[in-house]
């Protein structure tokens, strides 16, 4: 994170290039608007009323509850979305390339989960496939809120 780099003498900007808040590890993975979108989508896919606000929310069995699965599969799903958030952050901060839409980030996280799921035992692959289907269903039903433009006047 930018805060960690600052402690090592880095001269760059300590603020998130997407939302302008102080960029800590917690911010990248949980507080940034992109992270909140991703975790909200995951939460809706798994019928959760709340989303994790820090790693603490996922400890002591929280990951099992949030993803409605066992610890091993929960970690794979968490890792897929955490990895995509980290990669997106680096692309924005280093290359100045921003996602066209946050759904793109969600899709990429889901692709990591599917790729890494192939490394599991067949029984776990079947269980993971059920979670992947829930995530795909949410994506297929996702409709962004389209608010009417306020600067158009009817004559």
Describe the structure.
The protein is mainly alpha-helical and 155 residues long. The protein is built from 7 helices and no strands. The radius of gyration is 17 Å and the shape is globular.
Form type: globular
Please tell me the overall pLDDT: 86
Structural Rg: 17 Å
Uncertain residue ranges? none
Q: How large a portion of the residues is in β-strands, by DSSP E? A: under 5%
Features:
mainly alpha; 155 residues
Structure summarized in a few sentences:
The protein has 155 residues and is mainly α. It contains seven helices and no strands.
Provide the fold topology.
Elements: H1 2-7, H2 25-31, H3 33-45, H4 62-67, H5 71-95, H6 102-117, H7 122-141
Helix pairs in contact: 2-3, 3-6, 3-7, 5-6, 6-7
